[in-house]
Amino acid sequence: xxxxxxxxxxxxxxxxxLKGIDCEVAEGEVLCVIGPSGSGxxxxxxxxxxxxSFKEGQVTIGGHNLTGxxxxxxxxxxxxxxxxxxxNVFPHMKVIDNIMLAPMKVGKVSRADARARGMALLEKxxxxxxxxxxxxxxxxxxxxxxxxxRALAMEPTVMLFDEPTSALDPETVGDVLDVMxxxxxxxxxxxxxxxxxxxxxEVADRVLFMDAGLIVEExxxxxxxxxxxxxxxxxxxxxxx
Amino acid sequence: xxxxxxLPPLLRGAGLTLVICAAAGVLGSLIGIVLGTAKAxxxxxxxxxxxxxINFIRGVPILIILLxxxxxLPLMLPALTFSRGFxxxxxxxxxxxxxxxxxxxxxxxxxxxxxSEAAEALGMHYFVRLxxxxxxxxxxxxxxxxxxxxxxxxxxxxxxSVIGFVDLTRAGRIVTTxxxxxxxxxxxxxxxxxxxxxxxxxxxxxxxxxxx
Lengths: 241, 212
Hints:
The complex is a heterodimer. Helices cover 38% and strands 25% of the residues of chain A. Chain A is built from nine helices and ten strands. Chain A has a six-stranded mixed sheet with strand order 6-7-8-3-9-10, with helices on both faces. Chain A has helices at 41-48, 73-79, 95-105, 111-124, 140-152, 170-185, 197-203, 221-226, 231-240; strands spanning 3-12, 15-25, 30-34, 56-61, 64-65, 80-83, 158-162, 189-193, 206-211, 214-219. Chain B has helices at residues 7-39, 44-58, 62-76, 84-110, 113-121, 126-156, 168-179, 182-211. Chain B starts with 6 loop residues before the first helix and ends with a helix. The interface between A and B is medium-sized, with 26 and 18 residues.
């Protein structure tokens, strides 16, 4: 298992957002997390690379125990890539520099190698002609693809996606999902918080349905979408589909 | 009217004002960058130390800082006896540093949190994030208010005349005691202050246009 979560509890002040999460993700698996707003899906995802800290529970990812005494969080984050809903592309750097920054400054990769890696990744996401422009000239979908390439530049073993298409207009959503599909086919371990049920159905190996801080139901896409067992799952899906 | 003979001392005063403002502007900015970053840092002790400095200096009139540095410090420690010019630069720098610190801190905190999170998620250590991601963006935000402060500094620098430093204001006052022509003299002094501060505002406008 490349990710294991045991008894994860997370509170923001008095508000308990994660009330005891247990789950596992195998290598090469694509796990989609769905659920209503406020269910704790994003919080769970952000706990996986410790962007949100937690005091109760244990998370092991890519061989690192997040709350272990000797764990270097920066080392963990080199192995775990993250893509955000609001892209968070660096606006003051060209697209290629966005992708090259972390490998050079964190991974100690040479400029030439970083550039080669960056151009290869831009080709993978279909944006080689945008290498030397600034992100402000790009559309949302293009920015998100740059963000994916940027995360992949660190050669992570796991990729986390936090509602990657929620801020995109419907036309560009497809371009980003295609990139994610390709990644999944190549065997990347992915955890995706999403409202794109079509994507989850087509690409996920397993789906988790979360509500009010707990995992209500989990199973294969067929199980969850075609025969949900739990009342809450059925109610959520009936509103969406 | 034979006013031409009074121009050289006024121009010399203007030159000295320019020099001390440039020096204090640079030093104050450096102090401001260090303290502003400290105040915005996750380190509790850095925040406390920088806050003490900033709050103390901002709570005291600049004139008091100048008078204290020139008259009181040598009484506390004879080694701290400075010339008027040095006192002027030190006093103005210390003062500027406190205000610049708040401008820098504001700039850093105005950078969207997502930028820091993305950099963190890429495995970047705090100082790496700060240097390559946060700072460049923070400085862009901080430049307009920084320029505004530098313009204010030029005018605040007229206070150094009180410790006897012959800046533009003091030169103007000395000249009027000789030529008994306060109207013309102070009009020229005002014009010279304008000549010094206007280019700074133009620099600010140029910079903001460059960003757009």
